[in-house]
Amino acid sequence: MSFRTARLSVAFVAVLVLSGCASGTSPDASSSPGHARIGLAVSAACVAGSSTECVSVRGEGVLAPSSYEDAGVHDATVVENGGQTTVQVTFTDDGAAVLNTLTKQAVQAGSGARLILEVGGEIVGAPAVMEPIEGREVSIIVAPEDDAQTLVRSILGR
Length: 158
Fold this sequence. Notes:
Layout (H helix, E strand, L loop, with lengths): L2 H5 L2 E5 L22 E8 L9 E4 L2 E4 L5 E13 L2 E8 L1 H17 L3 E7 L2 E4 L11 E6 L5 H8 L3
Antiparallel strand pairs: 1-9, 2-5, 2-7, 3-4, 5-6, 6-9, 7-8
């Protein structure tokens, strides 16, 4: 199975565990190989196939962002719980600040806004955001047919 397949079957669920700092959006990791990070951007839903910028993520059309903000990741691990596989991501302090800032922007932009998650050059999720995420931890739900370890390796820059 390719990573490209995995990117289409990932959902995003926030787990508000730790309090994050919302000041500033300077990530503390770069996008070069070997750095643990998730690229984040706020975008909008669109009709799949309506333009070259509109891509399908989990069957929903979203506008592919032209750039992403790096959210540094401290750790990412696979968690199995009752038949559901998730990737538990813990952001660095700066990464959590980026996450908080962008989820606030997504909420303010309205119901058509999406938080785009990019890992290894691929969009792996595009959830609607109902409220700002103030913690450092999130869980990414992985479909049974996809490889969670591949996602972890990509997040960790391996």
